[in-house]
Amino acid sequence: MNQFARTELLVGAEGIEKLKHARVAVFGIGGVGGYVVEALARSGVGTLDLIDNDRVSLTNLNRQIIATHSTIGEYKVDVAKRRVLDIHPTAVVYTYKTFFLPETAPEFDFSAYDYVVDAIDTVTGKIQLVMEADRSHTPVISCMGAGNKMDPTAFAVADIYQTSVCPLAKVMRRELKNRGIRKLKVVYSKEPPVTKTQPPGSNAFVPSAAGLIMAGEVVKDLLAGRREN
After folding, report:
1. How far apart are alpha carbons 165 and 140 in whole angstroms?
2. Is the pTM of this model over 0.90?
3. Where do runs of H (alpha helix) occur along the chain?
4. Lower CB count within 10 Å: N or C terminus of the chain?
């Protein structure tokens, strides 16, 4: 018996091996990205690259799985790595205390990844992530706006050009079209913002739902051997 025995009942021994040998980069280890990392570690993904320049703060406790009173002040990637290795001790975890923007993009070799997860907040960073993944033919999934929402059942998986309602998705559609990007898998909410606060309000169940949906898509695509043409 091993810790992935229940997963193996669903995906088979070959599937477990695919996940074991997969390398996934998660950009943004916050309310969404933290749950992506959690689910990928528990699914047996063998190598994880964690990218985030932020530290855990008191206001993270309401929604981020890595945030506890004992981790306040620590770098999120350090806390996430410790948690991953406690769950999956044989995993390989690389951490980068980096705020991903166009000027920091050269620090990363996107061709080394089997999948890229975009869970960052800045539009310029998100666009650059998609551009880098497109250049290296690496699958990428991007999270649209999860703030100021209350309904975790309103999320959907779609191509960016099939989205509606979400203001962030609207901006991304325009910017990606201008750059010649023809497709992008995204998780987005069909729920209109319940308020328009800045910074956006958030809760324990909406970002986590988005993160778990994203992780599910990553695992599904890794098992299918999906690779961009």
Report:
1. 22
2. yes
3. 5-20, 33-43, 76-87, 123-136, 167-178, 206-224
4. C
